[in-house]
Amino acid sequence: MTEKLAVITPHPSAFNEAVGLRLVDWIEGRATVELDVTGDHLNRSGYVHGGVLMTLIDVACGYAGTWSPTAEGARLCVTLDLTTSFVAPACGGRLTTVATVTGGGRKIYFARAEVRDEAGQLLAMGQGSFRYR
Q1: CA 40, CA 49: separation in Å to the nearest integer?
Q2: Domain Thioesterase, which positions (predicted)?
Q3: pLDDT value, residue 74
Q4: How confident is the model at residue 70 (pLDDT cuts 50, 70, 90)?
């Protein structure tokens, strides 16, 4: 996916790289983002920080709504609002976030996402509104 991403995405994100996010699947209306948890992602209680889970949801939803088969058709977006519900604590391992577009129009789209651990347990879910740039 990294090679495909380099071709399709004209503006790679240094932030995503710094956090350790990987786009592993990207089709129209859907994106999957993974993160291998390190000590840098943990809060002082030893669980994955809620901000990391929200970042996974935000990034996956952003990709889900901006897919294009070519770099020339690539779109960018900004998050207008994002609501997250935390369901269970995440301790480590690989986290997988799947986002899907749920609706929208010419300028704004809506998406939702779920973050799961390696066992498939739901850790967090969120939904948001995104504006195309």
Answers
A1: 9
A2: 46-123
A3: 81
A4: confident
Cβ atoms of residues 83 and 91 within 8 Å:
no
CATH code matching the domain that covers 2-132, chosen among 1.10.10.60, 3.10.129.10, 3.40.50.10230, 3.30.470.10: 3.10.129.10
- Sorted by sequence, the CB contacts under 8 Å of residue 66 that are 6+ apart come out as 74, 75, 76, 77, 132
How far is Cα 32 from Cα 26, in angstroms, rounded to an integer? 6
Determine the average pLDDT of the residues in 29-36.
98
Task: Identify which of 18, 31, 47 has the alpha carbon closest to the alpha carbon of residue 96.
Answer: 31
